[in-house]
């Protein structure tokens, strides 16, 4: 199952652990003027994270300008606006401060700050033109305030083309952050439901990267550790967001899941979710993955049973006590139990306005926009099977 011939490229310097934001003072930053990318929400200002960052920049004699329009499901329009601002202001590096949406946007802005034309000219998949980004990207500094996407430790950025309802992941060697700060103290303010959604996003990055047919011994090692840590510590974070030890372990699981994304790949579960949130942008990505997960992993557990047995073990299940035919499905049971412990066991697509008669359209969108992930599935799904999984997940 695993590939014993593989490349390993992970060029990001990571400062990890409580208090790491303060360690930024001692780092050589990759430029003299930063574009700081944050969300349109209030939390970066309210909790003082933006002020702490700008104080460090001032101390280091680095100029900056703030771009604060990013949405929870970021859109192409804001990537283009941010890149225009970076060019006009002669910014020579980009800092993403916040969750995955802000850091992803910072990566895409860093790319477009060095290129002409439209961001979708470079996207591979859907209506993207797949052009090569010959000028690279501005250096990227990622300061994550959530434990969910692992974007601080991988090259991937997910942006929605709001004109075409295409939500597509993109990345290359230029979109790895140069420097990432993972400070769990910045995650203490994340509310319980978002802690759960984000934690499950990391969980599925690890699980999908483990079952993907391009998994390597390195990605699998990271994936199993990530799954183990999330199973143990995510419920503690949801119950008590101020538990710094639990927050640190979930942050570690998330960064490990980013390593998985750098060395393996997501599978079609992510393509299906991107279709849901491309048409329904109020749906949090992690919530969409949770909605799909039982139907999706029940289907795949019978296709690669040995991988699912290993995942169940990582979640603490004593699989050897079970009848052989039940062992792969023990993972699905443990996953459902974990979702219930985290208060997200009853999410419904219908709560976000998704209608059952749209499933075929959404499945078609998943395959057309992010078909590449279907190619790394351990079993090749047909269109009909994709529809069936999404129908089974619908409630």
From TrEMBL:
- Tell me the ranges covered by the Alcohol dehydrogenase iron-type/glycerol dehydrogenase GldA domain, including all copies: 11-184
Molecular function (Gene Ontology), one example: alcohol dehydrogenase (NAD+) activity
Every Fe-containing alcohol dehydrogenase-like C-terminal domain range? 195-394
The protein's UniProt keywords, in alphabetical order, are: Oxidoreductase
Annotated Pfam families:
ADH_Fe_C (PF25137), Fe-ADH (PF00465)
Recorded superkingdom? Bacteria
* InterPro entries on file: ADH_Fe/GldA, ADH_Fe_C, Alcohol_dehydrogenase_Fe
Renumbered to this chain, the signal peptide range is: none
State the name under which the record lists this protein.
Iron-containing alcohol dehydrogenase
Protein's organism? Caldicellulosiruptor acetigenus (strain ATCC 700853 / DSM 12137 / I77R1B)
């Amino acid at each position: 199952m695993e590939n014993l011939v593989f490349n390993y490229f992970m060029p990001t310097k990571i400062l990890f652990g409580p208090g790491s934001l303060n360690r930024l003072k001692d780092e050589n930053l990759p430029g003299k003027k930063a574009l700081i990318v944050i969300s349109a929400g209030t939390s970066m200002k309210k909790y003082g994270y933006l002020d702490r960052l700008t104080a460090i920049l001032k101390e280091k004699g680095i100029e900056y300008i703030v771009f604060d329009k990013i949405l929870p499901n970021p859109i192409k329009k804001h990537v283009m606006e941010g890149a225009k601002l970076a060019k006009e202001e002669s910014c020579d590096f980009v800092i993403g401060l916040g969750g995955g949406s802000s850091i992803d946007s910072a990566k895409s802005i860093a790319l477009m700050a060095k290129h002409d034309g439209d961001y979708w000219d470079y996207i591979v998949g859907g209506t993207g033109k797949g052009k090569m980004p010959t000028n690279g990207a501005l250096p990227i500094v990622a300061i994550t305030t959530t434990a969910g996407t692992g974007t601080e430790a991988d090259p991937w950025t997910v942006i929605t083309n709001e004109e075409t309802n295409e939500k597509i992941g993109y990345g290359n060697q230029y979109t790895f952050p140069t420097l990432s700060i993972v400070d769990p103290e910045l995650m203490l303010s994340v509310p319980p439901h978002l802690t759960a959604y984000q934690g499950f996003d990391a969980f599925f990055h690890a699980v999908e990267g483990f079952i993907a047919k391009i998994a390597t011994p390195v990605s699998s090692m990271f994936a199993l550790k990530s799954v183990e840590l999330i199973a143990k510590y995510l419920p503690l974070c949801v119950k008590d967001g101020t538990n710094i030890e639990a927050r640190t372990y979930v942050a570690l699981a998330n960064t490990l899941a980013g390593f998985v994304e750098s060395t393996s790949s997501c599978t079609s579960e992510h393509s299906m979710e991107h279709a849901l949130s491309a048409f329904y942008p109020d749906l949090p990505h992690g919530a969409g993955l949770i909605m799909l997960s039982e139907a999706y992993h029940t289907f795949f557990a019978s296709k690669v049973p040995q991988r699912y047995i290993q995942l169940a073990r990582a979640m603490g299940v004593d699989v050897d006590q079970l009848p052989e035919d039940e062992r792969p499905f023990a993972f699905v049971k443990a996953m459902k139990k974990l979702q219930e412990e985290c208060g997200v066991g009853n999410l419904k697509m219908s709560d976000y306005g998704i209608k059952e008669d749209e499933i075929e359209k959404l499945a078609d969108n998943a395959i057309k926009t992010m078909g590449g992930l279907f190619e790394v599935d351990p079993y090749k799904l047909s269109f009909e099977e994709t529809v069936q999984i999404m129908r089974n997940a619908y409630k």
